[in-house]
Write a structure and sequence with these properties.
Helix content is 10%, strand content 35%. It is mainly β and 152 residues long.
């Protein structure tokens, strides 16, 4: 190019190259591996959740933007709650066209051990404004037992 100026395409490539490094704690610039979180063997994203209790229920909340209720599967097996889903990327974008890539697209799941027994048949799940809420009613019957320790 004349005048030593980069073409618009070369300027975009240079801009992209500049985002491929990060500054470490010492202030030194370090290269960043593209799609590092994929290269480390992650096949499925982990869902972020909040879990709290009320006197009558365990409540699990998670932000699941971009996922329809048909793409979410919730199951309870013994004392474990599992939430699975898939977030589809609406547009196919070439890897080299990304400047930043922080959003997770693809399958995700999260399993937690429930701290108390719940009435699985009465679990309610709803999705509103991208927030999944799962309400698990606590079981009325408690199976807490006391065991006496014998001296020998």
């Amino acid at each position: 190019m004349d005048g030593g100026k980069d073409s618009p395409m070369e300027e975009e490539e240079n801009l992209y190259d500049n985002y491929q490094s990060a500054v470490d704690e010492s202030g030194e610039e370090q290269p960043v591996r593209e799609n590092e979180w994929l290269e480390d063997g992650f096949e499925e994203g982990q869902l972020s959740i909040d879990v709290y209790q009320t006197p009558s229920s365990i409540v699990v909340k998670s932000t699941i933007a971009g996922v329809s209720s048909e793409d979410i599967d919730i199951s309870i097996n013994n004392d474990m709650l599992t939430i699975r889903g898939k977030r589809e990327q609406p547009d196919k974008i070439r890897d080299e066209d990304y400047l930043f890539r922080e959003c997770y697209w693809g399958s995700f799941s999260r399993s937690i051990i429930l701290p108390v027994e719940v009435e699985a048949e009465k679990v309610d799940a709803s999705l509103e404004n991208g927030v999944l809420t799962v309400v698990l009613p606590k079981s009325k019957t408690s199976k807490q037992i006391s065991i006496k320790v014998k001296n020998k």
